[in-house]
Amino acid sequence: TRSNPPPEMVKYSQSPAPSTYRSSGLNEAHRFKNFVEGKSNQLARAASIQVSSQPGSEYNPLYIYGGVGLGKTHLMHAIAQELQARKPELNVLYLSAEQFMYRFVQALRDRKMMDFKEIFRTVDVLMVDDVQFIAGKDSTQEEFFHTFNELHNNHKQVVLTSDRPASEIAKLQERLVSRFQWGMVCSIQAPGLETRIAILRKKAPKAVEGLFTRENVLSIGQEERDRKKRRKFATDFDLIDRTQADNDDDPNFLPNRSPHRPGGDAPYFLEGGVLHGQGPRQRGNRPQRRQDLHRR
After folding, report:
1. Which of 10, 110, 113, 276 has its CA 20 to 30 A from that of 203?
2. What's the pTM value of the predicted model, to 2 decimals?
3. Would you say 183 and 59 are in contact if contact means Cβ atoms under 8 Å apart?
4. Residue 129 has what DSSP assignment?
């Protein structure tokens, strides 16, 4: 008898016993209608919707990358569930890269590679989450390379996610890097303030009810701008210190000490987290130098 696959592996098919391949691996809440769209994920969402409506056509493969918790897996689940609803006749296989490796090793051990190839090379849509984990596994990469080629040559859809661009995955074979970039490559960035608020409203509407008034949003926005200013000031001070270090051997260089140092003579000063001043003192259009001071 055939054992049930791990929860991460989900296959939808019209086989006589489809329940054999079903599991709770897909989150019912991860659908397109529940995905909060913003500038940081707009392209990835649009490409995912296109794939779910016309698999194997334009965006093949679809490669989505981004940091943890930004919505890559949500989009993968949404694609699989949309395909299940729209095109129930398709064989859709979703699993993690770890599960692909597990099944490959198991097939080698049990001498069932033909069964393995029958499963993975005859699907209509193959979806692999966190594909970066096959990097450095030469035998797994070899098998994935041939699986990818077989599916792509037969106009079957491949969808992949990763935490970084394929070209930045260490120990990933160049031929796989090239193939992962054949279709549509989309990045998901960290959401902006407006998108984060929209996500909170979507996830817990009752909990945040009344929290995001106009005054509160303006206050949050001001705090965000103040943080950006402070980061910029810290960078400016670091550049000043580095410039001074680079000019220690220049007898005409007038050091512009950072304002946070005791006795600093720079015309900068901090008050309430705000930088005041116009920058280095100047005579005409050039910085003041020691030789100018001696002439006084």
Report:
1. 10
2. 0.64
3. yes
4. E
